[in-house]
Amino acid sequence: MSSSKTEGCKLLLAKAKNDAELKAVGNQTGGRVFLFLHTSEFDTYYKHLSKHEVEFCESPRHEPYGKVVVFKDLYGNKWDLIEPV
Fold first, then answer.
1. Which residue from 19, 33, 69, 83 puts its CA 20 to 30 A from 56's CA?
2. CB 53 within 8 A of CB 4
3. DSSP collapsed to 3 states, 17-70
4. 35-74 pLDDT tens trace
5. Considering the entire predicted model, what is its pTM?
6. Distance CA 30, CA 33 (A)
7. Which residues contact 32 (CB under 8 A, 6 or more apart)?
8. Between vectors from CA 53 to CA 51 and to CA 56, what angle results, nearest 5°?
């Protein structure tokens, strides 16, 4: 059975609960990529993110594992947008 309530992906991020956690927001991984967003429609999502003024750390590139670009979320966390081969 297919339902829009059960399809897709959901992500739950916990809010910082004290000063130490708040100071780490945007740098939980010491500057490395934090999250990986896989898609089969890289160009569509890249254009959508670009249109909404998302900050990219680089231009899209081709790697042996697929097409990838690094971008930052509102809190400075780095994400990989990846279309695997």
1. 19
2. no
3. CCHHHHHHCCCCCCCCEEEEEECCCHHHHHHHHHHCCCEECCCCEEECCEEEEE
4. 999 999 999 999 999 999 999 999 999 999 999 999 998 8
5. 0.77
6. 9
7. 78
8. 105
